[in-house]
What we know:
two-stranded parallel ribbon; Rossmann fold; alpha/beta; 9 strands
Amino acid sequence: xxxxxxxxxxxxxxxxxxxxxxxxxxxxxxxxxxxxxxxxxxxxxxxxxxxxxxxxxxxxxxxxxxxxxxxxxxxxxxxxxxxxxxxxxxxxxxxxxxxxxxxxxxxxxxxxxxxxxxxxxxxxxxxxxxxxxxxxxxxxxxxxxxxxxxxxxxxxxxxxxxxxxxxxxxxxxxxxxxxxxxxxxxxxxxxxxxxxxxxxxxxxxxxxxxx
Length: 211
């Protein structure tokens, strides 16, 4: 059985792409970001390939790419395009291939005039990994995101933290959010495959990512 997940976050800039690179390296997974905005500043595909040391063929092309670093619905509108879920299809993968798919922004980022990132997750039928900060405010943001995911009937595998250890916040999220903490990416002086793999070994529960 393969392990396949959709990585989402409590908001933009929370550390989703770093988590994706870590998981791709640790699980030998294929990376895919179906909708990418901000290509004028580079792409998350390029970042994951560099950080995880992935062969380029293990990082799949985006279905939608937009230059401005704005929400997908706005970027698409400016480009005269409508993002259609019917055109976002699961990539052809080998039976044993693991997959890490990455969303854009948080769980309720709109992708068109009626649909949100949660609709993309449900469309792809992948369980969610929620990336959250460890700092002040994370309890509210994380519990709200978990509630939205569950209301959308998206299976949640658990929460991954980004930042310094904060046991009290972790305990509160596990208790009130009824979601396991699967791991944490600490602040790293340098980001590359070796440091990410070391962080996975030290701070993650490997068994939680098995199918």
